[in-house]
Amino acid sequence: MSRAAVYVESAAGRAALAEGERLTFGRARECTICLDPDDLAISRIAGVVECERGAGWIANASATRPLSVVDELGFRSILAPGRRAAVENRTQVIVDGSRSQHTIRISVESPRTELPLEQPPGAPTATGEHVMISAADRLAMVALFAGYLEEPPRYDPYPKSYAAAAARLGWKRTTLVKRIEYLRARLDAAGVPNMTGYAALTNLAEYAISRSLVTREDLALLRF
After folding, report:
1. Can you give the pTM of this predicted structure?
2. Are the C-beta atoms of 48 and 23 separated by less than 8 Å?
3. What fold does the segment set 6-108 form as a domain?
4. 120: pLDDT strictly greater than 80
5. How far is CA 111 from the centre of its chain?
6. What phi, psi does 63 have (nearest 5°)?
7. Peptide bond into 153 cis (omega under 30)
8. Which of 82-86, 120-124, 156-160, 219-223 is predicted with the least confidence, judged by mean pLDDT?
């Protein structure tokens, strides 16, 4: 048998998939992972995980219900019924039932690597990389964006309210607001787009997490 390349974890345990093997999950008892046979909110076969040419694939096998797919950074995307997506890094698939939420974790032994894109001539892209992020800035962002970084069922891909984040830190709300507004102003001045406007906080979350300014390891800062 070929060496396993794709690993799948759930409440039922851990499974390894070798080349050409597949795993199903859903309500049906005949699924490899039966999530809850009595929960009619879950499709009989909700999804399929496959190992193909050393890569992992997740397919939505339902005819009606989408799947939530969370990447290694904590960003969520929706996999529509009948669609399939490649899994190149640690990925979580969230299946919502009427009685509980179920999580399927997928990892790939040897993620495919992409060659770096050649930088075209011209002015460099503004990224805000020269903006200094202090320990207090990071702490403020972790409190605001903890939902993106938490594991299910605490996973929640939306910024917390300023009041909730400040309370978790033991700060005044105004202190947190001023720090984040000052950070956004500095990033905006450095050329980072979308740091102002109605979606500025969400855009800051996406910027900070995608550039690893805050990571899952930083959640430990909130647990003192």
Report:
1. 0.74
2. yes
3. Tumour Suppressor Smad4 (2.60.200)
4. no
5. 17
6. -90, -15
7. yes
8. 120-124
Question: Position of tokens 């992020």?
Answer: 133
Q: How confident is the model at residue 131 (pLDDT cuts 50, 70, 90)?
A: confident
Identity (one letter) of the amino acid at 169? L
Tokens of 76: 């969520």
What is the DSSP track for the chain?
A: -PPP-EEEEETTEEEEE-TT-EEEEESSTTSSEE--TT-TTS-SS-EEEEEETTEEEEEE--SS--EEEE-TTS-EEEE-TT-EEEE-S-EEEEEE-SS-EEEEEEEESS----PPPPPPSSSPPP--TTS---HHHHHHHHHHHHHHHSPTTS---SPPPHHHHHHHHT--HHHHHHHHHHHHHHHHHTT-TT-SSTTHHHHHHHHHHHTTSS-GGGGGGG--
Task: Bin 106: left if φ > 0, else alpha if -120 < ψ < 50, else beta.
Answer: beta
**Are the C-beta atoms of residues 190 and 128 closer than 8 Å to each other?**
yes
Q: Where are the domains of the chain?
A: 6-108, 135-222
The pair of structure tokens assigned to 87 is: 């899994």
